[in-house]
Predict the 3D structure of the following.
Amino acid sequence: MHFDILTLFPEMFSGPFGTSILGKAQENGLLSVDLWNIRDYAIDKHRVVDDTPYGGGAGMVFKPDVLVRAIEEVKKDSSAPVIYLTPQGKVFNQQIAQELSTLPRIILLSGHYEEIDERVRRGWIDQELSIGDYVLTGGELPAMVLVDAIARLLPGVLGDEDSAEQDSFSNGLLDCPHYTRPAQFRGVSVPDVLLSGHHEKIRVWRLKEALRRTWLRRPDLLGLKELSAEENLILEEIKKETSVEGRFKDNESN
Ligand code: 4FV
């Protein structure tokens, strides 16, 4: 999969994209990233990329000619979608990451300043995505978040195919609790079932704990998911087990 990123600060990306899983994935040819400096498409002497908004007011607006020159140079005759990172976009989630991970190429436009000219939004932007309801200083971190969340879903990137499957949200639920050695740590033991080697019991325990955690912390997610007969049975079991105090206590712990 190929990512093109239009940004005013290409140097911001070298750290996250040059190390760890994303760096290795590029070395292995599982994904590639091209960074395009929007300022290179400002043709005036001072390479100006922004201007004051018509109608007055605070903030600056990306000049439409500069952005369009950059987008058209990168996109050429490709069908790759141009995705603009902005608080006004649809909130990015695991399902969107999954959908985008099936594409051969996407073009990300990292916003800056107040906004982009509305004519660019209407004529050259295919999709607007937000990483959350807060305002950042630039769209570079959002672009890194998208690449990270999408890239890890690409075959071979995580190495162990299963681990992306068991993530929070991958099956519409939060992830279950996890433990590793030692079996006893500061007087607290690992649940016996996880030491039993009984795969079916371990599967059911993990599903139950994922349902419990989702019900206690993010009941809204349960409303979005069609629960299987097994999941419904387990959820009823959890509700019977969980007193009002229990529900309150778990919220305290997170
Ligand atoms: C943002 C977000 C975000 C707004 C002004 C950059 C900033 C400047 N992008 N999800 N939240 N962008 O805050 O995607 O354009």
